Amino acid sequence: MAITYKPIGDTYSEAVINLILPIQQQEFNVNINLEAQQDLLAIEKHYQQTGGGFWGAFDGDKLVGTIALITYSPDAGALRKMFVRREYRGKEFGIAGALLDTLLEHASTKGIRDIYLGTVNFLHAARRFYEKKGFDEIAADSLPAAFPRMAADDVFYHLHC
């Protein structure tokens, strides 16, 4: 299996929604719906036009993972929409790490030095992943004022690149 990675836009909105919502709602029981994530219907506007990006991991034509970056200041961004299908998770695939590397490479080319993210406390594997990748847990009141916070998030991380 050869996983490929590429930037994706609005033509992939339906595939992104079909990947992300079941993971959020069914797998992790996060109380969030599409209405709270209208950015998924306008990927190019919310991510790419602001200097950020949205990337997909593909097994053939099948979308198996996503990651996104919102830039909210010239040198800072928010990591968003990091999801990998259950059957494609783990070190043997390395998809999450490759997606994060893709985002960090893009951030570097744009001069983004600080990446922040929010997650949910009970997502222990995700939290371990971010910590292994050098992210430091921070208090919510340490977030930049412009950070686009999601209502469901209750744990926050920062990476200085």
Question: How would you describe this structure to a colleague?
Answer:
This protein has helices at residues 13-27, 43-48, 95-109, 124-132, and strands at residues 3-7, 53-59, 62-73, 76-84, 114-119, 136-138, 155-160. It has 161 residues and is of the alpha+beta class. It has a 7-stranded mixed beta sheet with strand order 1-2-3-4-5-7-6, with helices on both faces. The longest helix is centred in the first third of the chain and has 15 residues, at 13-27. The chain is globular, with a radius of gyration of 15 Å. The termini are far apart. The model has no long low-confidence stretch (mean pLDDT 95).
Name the features.
28% helix, 161 residues, alpha+beta, single chain
Layout: helices, strands, pairs:
Blueprint: E1 3-7, H1 13-27, H2 43-48, E2 53-59, E3 62-73, E4 76-84, H3 95-109, E5 114-119, H4 124-132, E6 136-138, E7 155-160
Parallel strand pairs: 4-5
Antiparallel strand pairs: 1-2, 2-3, 3-4, 5-7, 6-7
Proportion in helices? 25-40%
The count of DSSP E runs of length 2 or more, i.e. the number of strands, is 7
Supply Rg: 15 Å
| DSSP summary: helix tally | 4
User: What form results from the Cα inertia axes?
Assistant: globular
Written as H for each helix and E for each strand, in order along the chain, the element string is: EHHEEEHEHEE
- Hey, roughly how much beta strand do the residues contain? 25-35%
Distance between the termini: 31 Å
Major beta sheet, specifics? Answer: 7 strands, mixed
Mean pLDDT reading: 95
- Unreliable residue runs: none
Strand order of the largest sheet: 1-2-3-4-5-7-6
Content-based structural category: alpha+beta
Oligomer: single chain
